[in-house]
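Schema walk-through. Below, the input block comes first and the output block second. Nothing else is stored per chain. Lengths vary across the set, and this one has 332 residues.
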Amino acid sequence: MSASQLHEGCILVADDNEANRELLSSLLGQEGYRIISVADGQQALEQLSRDSIDLVVSDVVMPGKTGFDVCLAIKSKPETRLIPVLLLTSLHGDDDRIRGIMSGADDFLTKPVNKHELLARVNSLMRLKQFTDELDNAEAVLSSLALSIEAKDPYTEGHCDRLSKYSVAVGEQLSLPEDLRVALRRGGLVHDIGKLAVPEHILLKPGPLTPEERKIMEQHTIAGERICAPLRSFRNVLPIIRHHHEKQDGSGYPDGLKGEQVPLTARILQITDIYDALTTDRPYRQALSAEKAFAIMREEVKRGWWDGGVLDAFAALVHGGEPVQPVGSSRK
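--- output ---
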């Protein structure tokens, strides 16, 4: 293989048989990959905690932690779950393959390994890893852009990070599924990214906005949705970005949604957003206490603005109360 065809990336090979490790390392090393080889599952997990690994190729039957154990551990941690795992096995039963699938394995090969099939499977999984890395990089860029907006106003320092943590905590309090909790984490960081499209003289204006300026400012939810729409991994984040300024009585923007038409994730973010604004210093007032902030927000619930059930869940969280039942309907 010519140098121009060499592949990049690091592959962790785990096999208790030294001859197998050397064969796999040689075949994959010739492709240009950097190879780290270990003799058992425990060593594999220790190596994963130290190195940046792009793919794990693991034997199933090993002393101590098996390949199934290694795969399950990798897929159970947010920091490693996107690393593809290719399991090698001499077992032929359906039960073993099902167990591998349940462990989160991305692909299987039966021993003895065919060189061409091995390389085809590895190259395919490495392309998948490259794709997910590119998605992660795109998300990181969006988050950085969102934080650059926050940095323009010293009074909002840390606002996005706090919203992200608050919102995820409320999602956990309401027993939301993991994909929506991930959306809340991301939404907290990028919900105002559409303000990139708002002129700075409006964005940073110290006094009240004119009706024309207000109309421009309110377009930031639509602009934010448009900016993030190309990322398929943000499909659950888009409703948060677009609808976090809606109100329960339909008087919000941009679409005038009412009640449960407003996505639950957007209702969660807006509650945490208002609370954070009330409990941090602003140029025109000092931070309010949690009690005062909740009193104001409960009055706004009575006006028909916010979801009272979500507010109760957040208040229980702030005050250290017991977990509440999932919100099934908007309560005013």
